[in-house]
Amino acid sequence: PGDLRHNVSAQASFAPEKLAANLNALLETLMKLKPATAKGTYMRSVTISTTHGPGVKVDTTPYAAGGSADT
Questions:
Q1: For residue 33, is pLDDT > 60?
Q2: Is-contact 13 28, C-beta < 8 A?
Q3: What confidence score (pLDDT) does residue 11 get?
Q4: How far apart are alpha carbons 31 and 55 in whole angstroms?
Q5: How many CA atoms lie within 13 A of 18 on its CB side?
Q6: In this structure, what DSSP letter does residue 19 have?
Q7: How far apart are CA 50 and CA 8, in angstroms?
Q8: pLDDT class of 71 with cuts at 50, 70, 90
Q9: How far apart are CA 69 and CA 34, in angstroms?
Q10: Backbone dihedral region for residue 40 (phi beyond 0: left; psi -120 to 50: alpha; all else: beta)
């Protein structure tokens, strides 16, 4: 069993660059919070969406490797 996180990361008025920067910061923070004792895949999936819109899956591979994605 895993945890489910809901976060508000942006507003509709944000520029695409700011949206990407906010998502990048959120994912980096989540990876930094990974307990040292955690084994296996820490983030199995990440999906972003508007309040009532369809979800879009995010590739978390760059974060799983300890890095960050380009914004």
A1: yes
A2: no
A3: 84
A4: 21
A5: 7
A6: H
A7: 10
A8: very low
A9: 18
A10: left
Q: What is the pLDDT of residues 38-69, one digit of tens each?
A: 888 888 888 888 888 899 998 888 887 665 56
One-letter amino acid identity for 40?
G
CB 19 within 8 A of CB 7: no
The tokens for 3 are: 């945890």
Contacts of residue 8, Cβ cutoff 8 Å, sequence gap at least 6: none
Which amino acid is located at 21 in the chain? A
d(CA 63, CA 1): 21
Q: Assess contact for 58 and 44: CB atoms under 8 A.
A: no
